[in-house]
Amino acid sequence: MGGKRKMFIYGGIIGLIAAILMKMGNPGNMGICVACFYRDIAGAVGLHRAEVVQYIRPEIIGFIFGAFIISIVKRDFKSRGGSSTLIRFFLGFFLVIGALVFLGCPLRMILRLANGDLNAIIGLVGYLVGIFIGIQFLKKGYTLGRSIEQNKISGYIVPTMAVVLLIFLVIKPAFIFFSTEGPGSMKAPVILSLVLGMVVGAVLQRSRICTAGGFRDAMLIKDYHFLWGIIGIFIVNLIANLILNFDSFHIGFADQPVAHSNHLWNFLSMTLAGLCSVLLGGCPVRQTILASEGDTDAGVTILGVIVGAAFSHNFDLASSPKGATPNGKIAVIIGIVFVLILAYGIIKNNNKIKSQNKEVIKNA
C-alpha cells in the first residue's frame, strides 16, 4: 500500500503543477503537453513557420534539468544507447504526428479529461487500443534489442541542448521566433515554468511514471504500480482545476480549448500514439526523462518527435479546433500501417535469429 500511496503522491504533484501552470498563463487544458511543447520549440528555432505555435517552452528545459540533476545525485546517470536507433527516430516521428492530430500528448490527454474535455475519453480509448496492439507484438517477441554503454560525452548532449535553449530563451536572438498570438503566446512566467518544470523532471525521474508503461503493465502483467501515478495526476489535477481554474472548467465535447470533436480521428490518432509508445518502451514524457539521464536512444527518439512536429506543421498534418485535416488523416493511416509492418518485420527477424542460434547450439 505504501508503494501505491507514494506513486499517487508523485502523480499528484505533477497534476497540481499542471493546474498551476495553466492558471499562470499556459494555454487552456495545457498546463503540460510534451508534444505541444516540442512543437513550439521546433517553431521557435525555425523548423516550421506556423506563427501561432512558436516559443521555447521553459517547462521542457526544466524537465531535462530536473531529471539530469537528480540522476547525477542518485547515480542513475549513464551514457547508453545503440538499440535500433534509426527505428526509434521514426517511431518518435509518427508518435508526435498522432499526438498533434489528436492535439495533445498522452499526458495532456489525461489533463484534458481532468478539466472536463470528453473528447479525451475517445483519445484514451484509442490510446488503450494502441497499447493493447503493441502488447500483442511484445508477446510474440518484439524487441529493439539491448542498449550498450556509450562514450560518456554522448549522454550530456541532451542536457547541453537544454542549456543552449535556455540561453536562446533569455537573450532572444533575432533568429529565434516567438508567437505574438495563439497558443504559442500563452505562457506562464519563465522562471516559474522553469522551476516547476525542474520539480516535474525530478519527480518523473524518481517515480518512472509513464502513461504507456502504466497501462501496459496493468494489461500485460496485472501490475498497477505505475497506474497509481496516472490516477494521481488525474484526481489532483481535477481537484486543482476546480479550485484554481473553475472559470474555464466545463464538461462536454464542444468548445474545449485547443481540441476538436472529430471522434474517429481522435481515436485513430491516439491509437497510433499508444502503439508507438509501447514499441518505444515509453511515452514522450518518459523518453524525455530517459534522454536526460544519458539514454542516447531516447535522445534520438526526441529528435524524431521534434522533426515530426515540424513536419506536421509544414505539411498541414496537425489538427486545429476545426478538426483533423485531410493530410493529417492520411498521415495517421500511413503511420499505423508503417508501424504495424515495422513491428511485424522486427518480430520475424528476431525469431529468425533465435532459430539460427538454436541451430548453431544444436550442431555444436
UniProtKB/TrEMBL annotation:
Pfam family, one: Sulf_transp
Keywords for the protein's UniProt record, in alphabetical order: Membrane, Transmembrane, Transmembrane helix
Source organism superkingdom: Bacteria
Transmembrane segments: 7-25, 55-73, 85-111, 117-135, 156-178, 184-204, 225-244, 264-285, 297-315, 327-347
Protein name, as recorded: YedE-related selenium metabolism membrane protein
Organism whose genome encodes this protein: Tissierella simiarum
InterPro entries associated with the record: Seleno_YedE (IPR026366), Sulf_transp_TsuA/YedE (IPR007272)
